Amino acid sequence: MLHIHCPYCEEMREEEEFSPAGQAHIQRPLNPEELSDEQWARYLFFRKNPRGLHHELWLHAHGCRKYFNMTRNSVTYQIMETYKMGAKPSITASEEGQS
Amino acid sequence: MQQYSGFGLLKHSLSYHENWQRVWSNPTPKKHYDVVIIGGGGHGLATAYYLAKEHGITNIAVIEKGYLGGGNTARNTTIVRSNYLWDEASHLYEHSLKLWEGLAQELNYNLMFSQRGVLNLGHTLQDMRDIERRVNANRLNGIDGEVLTTAQVQEMVPILDCSKGARYPVMGASWQARAGTARHDAVAWGYARAADALGVDLLQQTEVTGIRRKDGAVEGVETTRGFISAGKVACVAAGNSSVIAKMVGMELPLESHPLQAMVSEPLKPILDTVVMSNHVHGYVSQSDKGDLVIGAGIDGYVGYGQRGSFNVVEHTIAAIIEMFPIFSRVRLNRAWGGIVDTCPDACPIISKTHIKGLYFNCGWGTGGFKATPGAGHVFAHTIAHDDPHPLAKPFSIDRFTSGELIDEHGAAGVAH
Amino acid sequence: MSQVNRIAASSKRINRNRTLTFTFNGKEYQGFEGDTVASALLANGVDVVGRSFKYSRPRGIITSDSQEPNAIFQIGSTQATTIPNPRATQTDLYHGLAASSTNGWPNVDFDLMSTVGKLGGSMMPPGFYYKTFMFPQSLWMSYEHLIRKGAGLGSSPQQADPDSYDKMHHHCDVMIVGAGPAGLAAALSAAQTGARVIISDEQNEFGGSLLCSKQQIDGELPSQWVEKTVAQLATMDNVLLLPRSTVFGYYDHNLVGINERRTDHLGENQLQSTRQRVHKVRAKQVILATGAHERPLVYGNNDVPGCMLANAVSTYINRYDVVPGNQLVLMTTNDNAYKTAIDWHQAGRKVVTIVDTRESSNGELVKKAKKLGINVIFGHAVIEVSGSKRVKGVDIAPINAVNHSVTGAAKHFPCDTVASSGGWSPVIHLSSHTGSRPVWNEDIAGFVPGETVQQQHICGGLEGVYDLSKVISAGFTTGAVAAQAAGKGEGSYAGTLPQTSDPQEDASMALFHVPHSKKTSRAPKQFVDYQNDVTAAGIELANREGFESIEHVKRYTALGFGTDQGKLGNINGMAITAKSLGKTIPETGTTIFRPMYTPTTFGALAGADVKHLFDPARFSAMHKWHLDNGAEFEDVGQWKRPWYFPKPGEAMQDALERECLATRNSVGILDASTLGKIDIQGKDAREFLNRVYTNPWSKLAVGKCRYGVMCKEDGMVFDDGVTACLEENRFIMTTTTGGAAGVLQWLELWHQTEWPELEVYFSTVTDHWSTMTISGPNSRKVLEKICDVDVSNDNFKYMDWIEAKVAGVKARIFRISFTGELSFEINVQANYGMHTWQAVMAAGEEFDITPYGTETMHILRAEKGFIIVGQDTDGSVTPQDLDMDWVVGKKKEFSFIGKRSWTRYDNKRDDRKQMVGLKPKDPNFVLPEGAQIVFEKNQSIPMTMVGHVTSSYYSACMGYSFALAVVKGGISRKGQSVFLPLSDGTTVEAEICSPVFYDPKGDRQNV
C-alpha cells in the first residue's frame, strides 16, 4: 500500500486518501474540431502504460482535493517524486534508463 | 500424444509411474516459424492449438518469458460464465463457454470444468433492473439465465445473508446454471500438451526483446535466444501488451493494473456455487480442495508488480463477511496479484494492426480466463485468414477511433 | 492416561500450579498453563492427531511452530465460536478447550479412508485427476461431487461470529519483526537512541529460540537475559511490545500488517475486548529478525507419528517439560542438532543412536554427545521407518550423498521417535512479500532475502547467521543502524555486548533427500509436503512429465499449497527438482512467498468495517419523520431514501397510486435532500459551466434556474440537474444523488488540470441543506401559508428562484419541477429541515398533503418523459440519443466537453438506440423494466434485439401503463409496433410513442 507525499499538504499520507487518475500530462487539444478521429481517439483512449517509470495523475480525494502529479516506478512501486500541477517532472525515463 | 484415462492410470501404477511421457517437449528454437505467438498463457496456447488444429498451420512457436500459464492464467479466480450484457460480448463469451463444455474430452485433459452455476447478486433497484435487462438479453441470445428472487437465492445459498438488516440487502440475483469454474493451470497445460502434439514449439524461459519489421510488415522477433524469423507475430501478452506494443512504437488503449485474489484455508464443502456481488464488491466460490477462492476489485494505479495494496484486501474481506457473516472466523491463507490490461470499455481487443502480420489479443481486464477457448479460437482464425473472425470483428482496435465501443461497465462495475 | 511424557519440572514456561482440562476428539486430557495444545497432547502421549489429505495416513505432530502441517484442528465448542484449522503448535491451551481432528472417518485412529488410500494410493500420483474422470463428459459433475466430499480441512462456523475486531494505525521509526535474540538486541539498541520502536513476535512471549536454549548468556540461562531485556524495553515510553502478534504481511513503502491475538489464549466468548486486532504500522525502517526454520530430511515413511524435527523435540523438552517418546534416533546433517540428543538423554530417556549423514565431525557438541555415552554412526542415514500409528523402528544404511545412493546393507534399530535435521532455512517470507526475490546462499544451503527497494534491514538467522554470539551482536548493530537511518542516534551500539560462547561446529552437509536402496519411485513414500501428501517420487514424476519450472512443480504436485505455505517442504522440494533435472537449486528458482505469513482471521482483516459500518449510511435531516411515518427505504448511493409511504396494510402499488393521484390532484411532498449540491463561485464560474455542460450559461440571469446535462469527453451523458444563478459570479449546481461525489471530482479535474486560469471554486454543500419539494396544483396554497413573500405566478415564475422565509426559517425556494406539476423546492439549512418539513406538513394538512418517495417521483417524472441518468442511460447514450438536442448549445464558442466525440462515425449512425415512449397494447400490462425489444416478432434465437425498456409503470393518473425505452432509430419510428419477448415465454406488443405522456405542452408546471 502506497505512502504518498501530497505536494500541497506537504505531508506523507496513506494511499486510502488518494485516487489515481491515470497518466499525467495529457493535455486536452485546444482545437478538438480540427483533429482527425484518429487524433481524437489518441487523446481519449491511448496511453503509454509503461513498465517502469510512469508519470501519473493523482487526486488527494480525502484530503485537500487537489490533483497532483507523481513519478512512480510501476514495477517496484517506488515513488520518485510528487509535484504540483503545472510543474514538470524532475525525473524522466531517459535519465533513469528504460526499465 | 499419450492418451490419458483411468485405465492408463491403473496400468502406469503397476510400473510405479516410471513410464509416463513428457507432456510437452523442450525444443531448440527453429530459424523460422510461420507464426510466432508472444505469450504462453492460456490464450496464447489456445491460439497455437487452434491454429494447428483448425487452420493447418503447425510451424508455430509460442514464446514465453517465464513458464507456461504463469501469468494471469495462474492467478485468476477461475470463474467461467457468458452472461454478458452486450450482444458482441455475450456472443464471444458464449462461443467460449460452448468450447469449454467439450474441452476436457477434446484435449484429453481433465480441466475440472465444473458447471456449478454463477449467481450475480442485486442489492438495489437499479441492480435488479440491470439484471433483468442482462438476463433478457442473454435469453434472446440463446444464453441460459434466470432472474431469482431473494427467497430463491436464499434457498440456493442458505449461508448467504439475505436478511433485510444487511447494509445492502440482497434483492435478487441473476443465475447462469451453465457457468462455473475450471482448474486454471490445467487449461494452460491441456492446451500446451495438445499444441505440442500437433507440432507447436513451446519455447519457455525465452523473452522477446524486439520485433523486426521491414516495409511495414513483421519479419520476426528478437529474443533472448536470438532472432527468430516469423511470417506473422501474434501478441498475447496480457498485462505486458503495452510493453510489446512499444517495441513497434505503438500505444494501445490499455492500462495495466494489479488485480488481487486470495484464498482461505481449506474448508469442508460449504458453498457449491459461485456468488458474485458487484455492489458489495465481493465474489467467492469454493474450490475442489476446499479453499474459498475470493476475487478483489482492481487496484486503481498502473502496476506491473504482481501485487496490489493491502486496503483492497481488507475491503474485499469485509465484503465477504457482509455477504457471509459465518466466515468471520475463517482464515485467509494467501493473497496475490496479477497484472490485468484494461480497456476503456471493459472489452478486449482482438485485432489486426497497421503493421502487416502483427496481431494483438489483449485488454481482457478481469475477464480473460473464461474467454480462453473462445479467444484462442477466434484469434487463430483472425491470424490464419488475416481477416477478423466474425465474432472478433467488433473487438477491433479501430473501435476506439470510430466510437463503436461495447461498454460492459454497465454490466459489471467491478471486476468479474 | 495421565501426562506420561511430562518430565520433572524445570521450565519456567510451564505453570504446574494451574492444571487445564481440555478435550481432543471427545476425550478429556490435562495440561498446564503455558502449554500449547500440541505440547499438551504430546505430554499425554497422543500420537495420531490427524489423517493426511490424499492417502488418509495417520499423522502426528512434527514441529513446534508455524511450520506444522499435520496438527491442524477444529477448535471451539459452539457453531458460533468454532475456528477451522488452527495449528495445535501455535494454539495456547486454555481451560475447557475443545479440539478435534479435521480429517479421519469414523475417527483418526481407525480411518476407513486409509484403506482406500492404501489400495488406491498408487493410482493417485500427482496430477492424476487431470488424467481421468473425463468420460463421459456428463459425469464430471458427479465425480466432482464425490471428490469434493473429501475436500477441506476444518469446517466453517455455521453461526455468526460473536466476537468483534478492530484496528490500530501506528507510525514508528523502527519496526522489528521477531523477538528472538536478534530482534530483542535490535530493539534495545534502537530504543536507546530515542527512536520510536515497535517489536512484535508471533509467540505468546518474547525470546524466540532462547526460550528453549541452554546456551548461557552472561553466565545465566538465556531466558534470564530475555526477561531482563524485555523488562528494560517495557520501561521505555518509546517502545511498544506486541507479543502474540504475527506479522502477516509486509507491504510496499514499509507498511507492516500485524495480527494481535488478544483473547484466543483465554478461551471463547471473551467479549470484554476485541478478539483480535490488526496493527497497521508505517515504519521508517523495518528490521526483519524472523530467524530460521529447521528443515526435516526426506526419507521413507517419514510421516509416521514419532517422526519429528530435531529442534521441535528440543523445544518440547526444554520449554514444555515434555519428552515426546522413549527411544530416540536422531538423524542429522549438522552438529547443531546433536543438542536434541543431548537434551533427550539429559531428560532421562534413551537415545538409541545418532545417525550422522556426514563422514565425520569433531565439533564440540559431537564430542559432548559421545562423552555422554550416546552412540553416533557417521556416513549413514535413516532410509526408512517402520510402524504405522507410531514409529516402531528404523532402517539405517550407509549412504553416498554425492551420487545419491545407499552403499551397503541396512540395519534395523527399534525406536519410537525419529528426530531429523537437514539444517536451517531462513524465514524469508516477509521480505518476499514486497517483490524482492530471494537469493541462494551456498554456505548455509538456504535462501536469504535479496535486493529490496524497501527501507529494510535483516539480521540474525534470517541472514544465515546462526551462532548466538554473532546473532546478538548483529542485532545490536542493526538496531543502531536502522535507528540512524530513521534519523536517530549515531549508528553504532555503545553499550557492552552480552557474552556467550558458541560451541565450535564442523561444517554441515547439504542433504535434503535421503537415498533409499530402491529407486525413489519404488521406495516407501518419502514425504516432502505432508499436508498435501507430496512425495519425492511425485516431484520426480512431475519433472519426468516435463514440469520443470519450480512453479510448475508446485502447481502440478500441490507442493507448498498447504496452510503452512511450504514452510516445511518447499526447499526440499526444490532440491529434489534440482537433483532430478541436473540443475542447481538457484537455477531451479524459488517460488515467491505471498502474504499471509500465517493464516489470518477474516474478521481481523475486516476489523470494525462490518455490519452497519460496512459502508456508512447517509440519512436526511427528516429521516426520523420518514421512519415514524412507515416509509419503506431504497438504497441510493450511500443514502437511505424513502421509497414509498405505505399506510398500514396497504400494498405497494396501492400506495404508489395514492401518492401519484394526491400529487397530481392536490399536493405531494418529497424529501429531495439527497440530491448533490455544489456551490460554484468565481468570476469565471459561468465560463466554466459553459465548458462542462452541453447547454449555454452565458445569459442565465441572477434569480434564474436552468437544467443542464453533462457529458464525458466521449460524448456520453453522465449527469444532469438544475443549476441556479445565485449571484453574478455564483451558482448552485444540483447533481444526481448517486453522482454527487463523482461530479465534484470531475469539475475539480477540469479546473485543476486543464483550466487553472479560470477563477472558479467548488464547494460541496449537499449536507448543508435540507430540501423538500412540494408539488401539485395546491402546492402554492400550502407555501403561501408559511412563506413571507409573494409566490404568485406573476411574482415567482417557473424556473425562478427566490430567497424567503419559510416557517420562519431562511430558505431558498426554486420553482422547478420534476413532476410536471406546479412545484416548489424549498431549501433550508439542514438543522432546520425537520422543523420546516413539519411546518409544511401542518400547512398542507387541509389539502391532504401526501408524502411520496422515490418510486412515485419516478412515475411522475416518467409520465413527463424526464430521464433519470443511470436508469434511462447507461454510459452509451448521447443527448441526441435522448432526443434532447435542445440541451446542446449550438453557438457556444468553446468546444465543450463531449462535443467533439459526437462527430465520430458511430455517433452519426441513424440506427443508434434512441429514447422513446412505449405504450403496451394491453393498457393494464406493465412491461418489465429490462425487457428486450425486437422489431420482428417471429424470430428464432438468437434474436436481433433493438433496445430495451428502461422505465416502466402503471399510471394511475392516465389510467394506463407506459414505459420509457431505448430503441434503434426509435425517434423516427413513432407509431410503429415493437415486440417484447418476455421471460415467461410470452411476447407482448407495444407502440413507439413520444416519451412525454402527460401534459405534453407543460401547462401544469407554469400555472
Determine and state the CATH class of the largest domain in chain B.
Alpha Beta
User: What percentage of the residues of chain A does DSSP assign to strands (E)?
Assistant: 25-35%
Order of secondary-structure elements of chain B: HEHEEHEHEHEEHEEEEHEEEEHEEEHH
Which architecture of chain A per CATH? Answer: 2-Layer Sandwich
Text of the CATH class of chain A: Alpha Beta
CATH architecture of the largest domain in chain B: 3-Layer(bba) Sandwich
For the biggest sheet of chain A, the summary is: 4 strands, antiparallel
Count of individual beta strands of chain B: 18
Secondary-structure class of chain A: mainly beta
Percentage of residues in strands of chain B: 15-25%
Shape of chain A: globular
> In the CATH scheme, what's the topology name of chain A?
Folate-binding fold
Largest interface: B-C, 116 and 111 residues
Please identify which CATH superfamily of the largest domain in chain B we are dealing with: FAD/NAD(P)-binding domain
Task: Describe the 3D structure.
- The complex is a heterotrimer of chains A (99), B (416) and C (1007).
- Chain A has 99 residues and is mainly β.
- Chain A has 2 helices and 6 strands; from the N terminus they run E-E-E-H-E-E-E-H.
- Chain A has a single domain (3-96), classed as Folate-binding superfamily (Folate-binding fold), CATH 3.30.2270.10.
- Chain A has helices at 37-45, 93-96, and strands at residues 3-6, 11-14, 19-23, 53-59, 67-73, 79-84.
- Chain A is globular, with a radius of gyration of 15 Å.
- Chain B folds into 2 domains: 6-78 and 184-253 and 345-410, FAD/NAD(P)-binding domain, CATH 3.50.50; 113-179 and 256-342, D-Amino Acid Oxidase, subunit A, domain 2 (D-Amino Acid Oxidase, Chain A, domain 2, 2-Layer Sandwich), CATH 3.30.9.
- In chain B, the strands form 3 sheets. In chain B, strands 1, 2, 8, 9, 10, 11, 17 and 18 form an 8-stranded mixed sheet that branches. Chain B has an 8-stranded mixed sheet with strand order 5-6-4-13-14-15-12-16.
- Chain B is globular.
- The two termini of chain B are 35 Å apart.
- Mean pLDDT of chain B is 95; it is low at 411-416.
- Chain C is an alpha+beta fold.
- Among the domains of chain C are: 1-156, Ubiquitin-like (UB roll) (Roll); 165-292 and 426-485, 3-Layer(bba) Sandwich (FAD/NAD(P)-binding domain), CATH 3.50.50; 325-421, FAD/NAD(P)-binding domain (3-Layer(bba) Sandwich); 768-847, Probable tRNA modification gtpase trme, domain 1 (Gyrase A, domain 2, 2-Layer Sandwich).
- Chain C is 21% helix and 27% strand.
- Chain C is built from 23 helices and 49 strands.
- In chain C, strands 8, 9, 10, 11, 12, 13 and 27 form a 7-stranded mixed sheet that branches. In chain C, strands 40-41-42-39-33-43 form a 6-stranded mixed sheet. Chain C has a 6-stranded antiparallel sheet with strand order 45-46-47-44-49-48.
- The chains are: A mainly beta (99), B alpha/beta (416), C alpha+beta (1007).
- Chains in contact: A-B, A-C, B-C.
- Chains B and C meet through helix 1, helix 3, helix 4, helix 6 and helix 8 of B and strand 6, helix 3, helix 11, helix 12 and strand 30 of C.
- Strand 16 (331-342) of chain B pairs antiparallel with strand 30 (600-601) of chain C.
